[in-house]
Amino acid sequence: MSKFIVRGGNVLAGNVKVSGAKNSVLPIIAASLLGEDGISIIRDAPPLDDVMTINKVLESLGANVTYDREVITVNAQNIASCEAPYEWVRKMRASFLVMGPLLTRTGYTRISLPGGCAIGTRPIDQHLKGFEAMGAEINLGQGFIEAKTKGRLRGAKVYLDVASVGATENIMMAATLAEGTTVIENAAKEPEIVDLANYLNGMGAIVRGAGTGVIRIEGVEKLCGVEHTVIPDRVEAGTFMIAAAMTGGNVFVEGAIADHLGPVISKLEEMGVSIDAQENGIRVRADKPLKAVDVKTLPYPGFPTDMQSQMMALLLVSEGTSVVTETVFENRFMHVDQFRLMNAEIKVEGRGAIVTGGAKLSGAKVCATDLRAGAALIIAGLVADGTTEVSGTHHIDRGYVHLAEKLSGLGADIWRITMDEPVAESTKVQLPQHEERPVLKIQPTWA
Ligand SMILES: CC(=O)N[C@H]1[C@@H](OP(=O)(O)OP(=O)(O)OC[C@H]2O[C@@H](n3ccc(=O)[nH]c3=O)[C@H](O)[C@@H]2O)O[C@H](CO)[C@@H](O)[C@@H]1O
Ligand SMILES: C=C(OP(=O)(O)O)C(=O)O
Fold first, then answer.
1. What is the pTM of this model?
2. pLDDT above 90 as % of the chain
3. 444 among the known binding-site residues?
4. What's the rounded Cα separation, in Å, for the pair 64 and 193?
5. Where is the Enolpyruvate transferase domain (predicted)?
6. Which CATH class is domain 22-229?
7. Residue 425: CB atoms within 10 Å
8. Would you kindly state where each structural domain of the chain is located, as residue ranges?
9. What's the CATH superfamily of 2-19+232-411?
10. Catalytic residue among 82, 117, 224, 367
């Protein structure tokens, strides 16, 4: 078991480099399964536990995956299985993103049901609705979802009831090899959707309109591996921006793309933080007391739910009272109880949290209840009186590369301790040597 130990009181200053985006690289790795020829080379792939998990999913399907110094190669010419095992899908919801590629390429897939998690129930009805509209027969039972088609999937119009990121990605990937045109209406508009569309187009797909609410995909016969560089992680960037503001610091967040961070920048500016967006990053300076603001999470281009807990940490030390409204996930205030252990005053009423600013936070033993909650607690620890110990590090390792090292490079007093216990599987980042496996190429059901 490990913990982050943070001693509050240091002002952050200097330069920090943002890693590749977790939420881009995961669907992109899944999409590599579509490459019947050639090899995909994915650059700026962050060394995160989630990346290792999806790599293992691909390996379990028969793809040959290597990971070396933030470059992943995927050779998916020979798919040996269409079943994503529970062992990996339970670790990470994004494993479910292999369903669209497998179904469209082979006509059959069987995947463990992804569970709910700390932040909400997270149903997958919109993914399935899309596949069904394209002609797939879906069967659910015994913890598995099975999808099959008699011939190729057929292009269809799919209106999403919620602008789901994952459903947009899964349907978009499935549509690339379908017969005819698919139109996704009320599609999610996140930058990660655009990154995935660019990757798919590089593989030979025809995807238009990604980044808008209507995406059109003309199906093609075949896709091939391609080289691609993943976009910088806007949530990691936003986390450092808030950490800088929190400590009254002056930090250059290298690689951060201002266009991807519109609402975070606007809210920080409203609070009195100075933001200077430059070509290769964003400078954040906070040299005066910060004002309270209200924040409401929304699908992109609204304020990201993945930045809600970090923002709440900042509002705790601003002047005045704020209301934080979470509209994307129904249970994403688990960090509130942990903040309270640090002397925070927050009242939760349904989807709203009333945050009393001006708190003198005190160090405490707290637990990361999910990935972003973990980052938010560390940020709070940066200004708390005394020492904060953050456990639940496996959540943080899912989405932040070398968080302690990056923050200490900016002057934070933070380090990680590992207690004398076996290292959990999820904290290991090196992939084992790829085993030779039988070349059992699965043919499409209609071939
Ligand atoms: C790997 C990845 O990219 N994860 C991100 C992705 O998750 P993910 O793709 O899982 O999130 P979605 O956009 O699908 O979820 C948004 C909302 O839609 C609901 N919903 C979703 C699918 C569905 O079939 N039915 C349904 O009702 C969800 O319960 C949730 O309330 O987008 C979220 C919202 O920006 C982010 O917090 C996650 O970091
Ligand atoms: C909720 C998140 O990720 P995931 O969808 O992978 O759980 C996140 O990145 O904050």
1. 0.94
2. 87
3. no
4. 25
5. 7-407
6. alpha beta
7. 12
8. 2-19+232-411, 22-229
9. Enolpyruvate transferase domain (3.65.10.10)
10. 117
